[in-house]
Specification:
The chain is 36% helix and 10% strand. It contains one helix and four strands, in the order ββαββ. The strands form two sheets. Strands 1-2 form a two-stranded antiparallel sheet. Strands 3-4 form a two-stranded antiparallel ribbon. A hairpin with a 5-residue loop joins strand 1 and strand 2. It starts with 43 loop residues before the first strand and ends with a strand.
Amino acid sequence: MYSDSTPPAPARRAVEVHQPTPLPPTVVHPAPVVPIQPDTVPTVASIVLPDGRIVTGYTVHHVQPEAVATRPAVSRTAVNVALGGVGFLAVSGGLLLLSAFIAALTALVTQLVILAAVIFGGWIAVQVFSASDRRGGTTVNIRKAVIKRNHFHG
């Protein structure tokens, strides 16, 4: 197909260029300014300054800012972490009691096994040492056995 010395030519693709479509210009009309008449006529106050001048003007009522929702002293995350810690301590106490119970049960089983071994070992020792006088022991007669053709003849 191709010779080994020349690489194949890359396939050509048509390139499409898309130009953005501008939006039509919009005219922004500012909102008309409408003077707002106060509900009541403010009171006029006059102040006499120390040098004798008189200043007359309207009293200004300070606007109280709206009360911001007060945040609790402790965040909810801190409360959740604390409750999780209390739960963990409760579980840890239960696990500690469970591990103590398992350790006590293990010690009890170990002591019972040791007690059984001592009793059984003593019984074996009594059997061995009491069989030396040959009274009351089991007598086993051993005689010559013959095996012919894989069959036992006693």
